[in-house]
Amino acid sequence: MFLAQRHERILAALAGGGQSVVQLAAALGVSESTIRRDLDILAKGGQLERLYGGAMLTQGSRANITDSGSVEDPFTSDTRGDLELRRKMATEAAQLVSDGDVVVLDIGSTTQLVARELRGRPVTIITSNLAVLDEVRDDDVVEVVLLGGVLRRNQQSLVGPLAEQVIGQLSADMMFLSCTGVRGGHVLDNMAVEAPIKQALIAASQRIVLLASELKFPGSGALRLCSLDEVDVLITTAGTPHDELAHRREAGRKVIVA
Q1: Model confidence band, residue 5 (pLDDT cutoffs 50, 70, 90)
Q2: Of 72, 87, 99, 160, which is the most exposed, with the fewest CB atoms less than 10 Å away?
Q3: Residue 219 has pLDDT above 70, yes or no
């Protein structure tokens, strides 16, 4: 686990209240000495306050974790020029879902559009994406499994160890995975606090469908979610480099150009 990723997970865990070194070490799967070093680094940066045997967030750090910006409407924002690309991908994605399927919809704006396409369908949706919940909360046909966790208001998502623990009890037919970049044969993300949720959902799903428009090649991000070889279906758009598409097809993977 990257140092920055571990620090994000520590801060996310502390957003719900103080934690002991023992609790944090167990949640992150590292040694207590590693956690102590991490807490010292974060405390020097003013992000948390050390307590006897543990730590708690400072008030400013708590705000950064749970509400680090205003919520942006992915449908109306003028700063998102890829709305039509995402709509096309969402339409193709929904066609892969059969009635009765258990489907994971990842954190991200494209998966909200997939949820919109699935309204009125007898499917089960597993998500930590509150924008997805908003799309289907009043739908009597769609069954929704909402993961718990720490609320990140600016991303409309739930994150943290609680969400990861719940995911360990779940099994899905298909996951629609979002990312910030595709580079070097890997699917990438730039949000360390969200990466563990995505990775746990990947492990809980039988098929992985990657939603990555042409803008994600190469995109951005330093955290590896999975390799492209783990992706069963790539849904992308017409501007994606042809060599990328050809390579995926040669590897026996399905490619859909929306």
Answers
A1: confident
A2: 99
A3: yes
Half-sphere exposure of 40 (CA within 13 A, CB side): 6
Q: Are 189 and 212 in contact (CB under 8 A)?
A: no
Give pTM, 2 decimals.
0.72
Q: Flag whether 66 is in a domain.
A: no
8 and 107 inside one domain: no
Whether 126 and 213 map to the same domain: the answer is: yes
Mean pLDDT for the stretch of residues 51-79: 52
- Residue 133, C-beta contacts closer than 8 angstroms, at least 6 positions apart: 127, 144, 146
Helix axes 21-28, 3-14, angle to 10 degrees: 130
- Domain region containing 13: 3-57
Cβ count near 2 (within 10 Å): 12
Establish if 67 belongs to a structural domain: no
